[in-house]
Amino acid sequence: MALLEVKDLQVFYGVIQAIKGISFEVNQGEIVTLIGANGAGKTTTMQSIMGLIKPRGGSVVYDGKDITGMPTHKIVGMGMTQVPEGRRVFSELTVYENLLMGAYTEKDRSRIKEDIEEIYTIFPRLGERKSQVAGTLSGGEQQMLAMGRAIMSHPKLLMLDEPSMGLSPALVDQVFEIIKHFHKTGTTILLVEQNANKSLAISDRAYVLENGRITVTGTGSELMASEEIRKAYLGG
Amino acid sequence: MSTLIEGLSIGSVYALIALGYTMVYGIAKMLNFAHGDIIMVGAYAVLTTMSLCGFPLVAILVAVVVCTLLGIAIEKVAYKPLRGASPLAVLITAIGVSYLLQGIAQLVYGSASRPVTIIDMGNVQIGNSAVRVSSIVTLVVGAILMVILTLFIKMTKTGRAMIAVSEDRGAAELMGINVNGIISITFAIGSALAAAASVCYLFQIPSATPTLGSMPGIKAFTAAVIGGIGSIPGAVIGGVLLGVIENVCKSTPLAPFTTSIEFGLLIVILLVKPTGILGKKRREKV
Fold first, then answer.
1. Residue B150: which residues within 8 A CB-CB, separation 6 or more?
2. Is A93 within the bounds of a domain?
3. Is ipTM strictly over 0.85?
């Protein structure tokens, strides 16, 4: 069953059409990746799904409900959230307070407390730095915080926009390990990545986005085997 | 001694108003130039309630309620439809709202100045100078409200959501925060503080005119900019600084130049530190 279904999505910036009618779906329990070059429209697609940008045409259906044009906070309340590109942690708030913000829609205080403890076990660095303001964390730590913050709301569908961007190879591996961990514990994942190698390796299915259109689709291993994709996105 | 206390007292009035400017700027990213006129509405609310029932406490309460509701209403009617519009359009709308409020007040109460006495608290002798009790009350009330506000922002979920929205609106929405709700709350708090400022202002100058809010409004805006607009401690420092300078100037031969000196200070501070005393550098988005 499709947890997320995007149909003929069209997004404009002024008169420029950034997304030219794309359709794709993410099924319950899958890891799906959108790959594509800079400016292909990956982030725009993610932001339109979350209601941060209002699409001009098409529809987004989540869990059987049409959420096109719905305010972002309501979409989050329905069990879907996003780790935005560039991490965007709240730099004036502490690590602990950032995690609390992630649980904004959760009312049960004891559950929030347990969840935060669990985040500290998944990311021991965050536990060590819980009273530090997020602005003083390293890039890798901020990415961990952004991911921990997003998982605090127990999303059914977690979208991650370029989670490996600007990180060292060791940290990139760690990020992908954590995505796999979230997936194993029952979260459906929609991933946007430039690091096509790593993301295709963990994906059930993938879509290639070029100039606002989906040009290729297939399973992760199919795309990894494709000559064309190897040349364009996997460095030969 | 009395100069200093008077200065601190008028300074806390400026600080209370400046907090409204700075919070709205930080969270809604707009300059609400109608904020000063909320003070004027508060003054007329006190005037009307005093003439109807005569209980100072009731009058103060009515002023706070009227101003809070007015602040929320202005945001809903005038500013919310302009979310995402150019800053200039919002600025002009705010100036329009300011004139609208002044016009309505003039229509209802006339343009002449009307005396408003809330309560006469007399003087108290501190050392060898007489100090007005109302000034001390203003100072204490201002300090208490500022402490409550700081605690509210640091300690409550809504307060943290306000910090989150001011830092990154999009990321805040992704947390499930209703940004429009937070903006409404911000206007409500700012306007309630303006009502408190209004009452304190009437302690100092017990009369109401339709343009009563303009000068303290502009001074408080100056204070917010001096302190660093968007910064809450900045608004407090800016307000108190401006109040003290104003009162010290008034007791010297420089008295006629008081206002010039205050705005001169603004220019000097902006030349030296364009973001104000506690202003932060905005992070450049890549």
1. B232, B233
2. no
3. yes
Report how far residue A142's alpha carbon sits from residue A2's, in angstroms, rounded to the nearest whole number: 32
Q: How far apart are CA B130 and CA A147, in angstroms?
A: 61
Instruction: Compute the distance between CA of residue B23 and CA of residue B9 in angstroms, rounded to an integer.
Output: 21
Q: List the alpha helices (DSSP H) in chain A.
A: 42-49, 72-77, 95-102, 109-122, 124-128, 139-151, 169-184, 196-202, 220-225, 227-233
Cβ–Cβ gap A92/B178 under 8 Å: no
End-to-end CA gap in chain B: 52
Q: Is the pLDDT of residue A154 over 50?
A: yes
CATH of the domain at A47: 3.40.50.300
The reply to whether residue B174 touches residue A92, judged by beta carbons under 8 angstroms, is: no
Contact A71/B176, CB-based, under 8 Å? no
Interchain contact, B175 vs A84, CB within 8 Å = no
Q: Among partner residues A82, A88, A104, which is closest to B161 by beta-carbon distance? A: A104
* Strand boundaries in chain B, DSSP class E: 114-115, 123-126, 129-132, 207-208
Please give the Cα distance from B272 to B277 (Å, whole number).
10
Name residue, tokens 């001009």. A56
In a domain, A117, yes or no: no
Chain B nearest-CA distance from A160, in A, is: 12
| Rounded Cα–Cα distance for residues A114 and B170 (Å) | 27
Query: Total domain count for chain A?
Result: 1
Both structure tokens of B199: 């009452």
Domain containing residue B231: 2-117+128-272
Query: Structural domain tally of chain B?
Result: 1
Q: Nearest by CB to A92, from B163, B175, B179: name it.
A: B163
Q: What is the CATH number of the domain that holds B168?
A: 1.10.3470
pTM as predicted: 0.90
Find the domain containing A77 and state its range.
2-86+157-233
Instruction: Give A227 to chain B, closest Cα distance, Å.
Output: 33
pLDDT digits (tens, 9 = 90+) for B214-258: 999 999 999 999 999 989 999 999 999 999 999 999 888 888 998
User: Nearest C-alpha of chain A: how many angstroms from B174?
Assistant: 6
Pairwise CA distance, residues B71 & B142, whole Å: 20
Residue with tokens 């306007």: B191
In the block, which residue shows the tokens 């049409």? A66
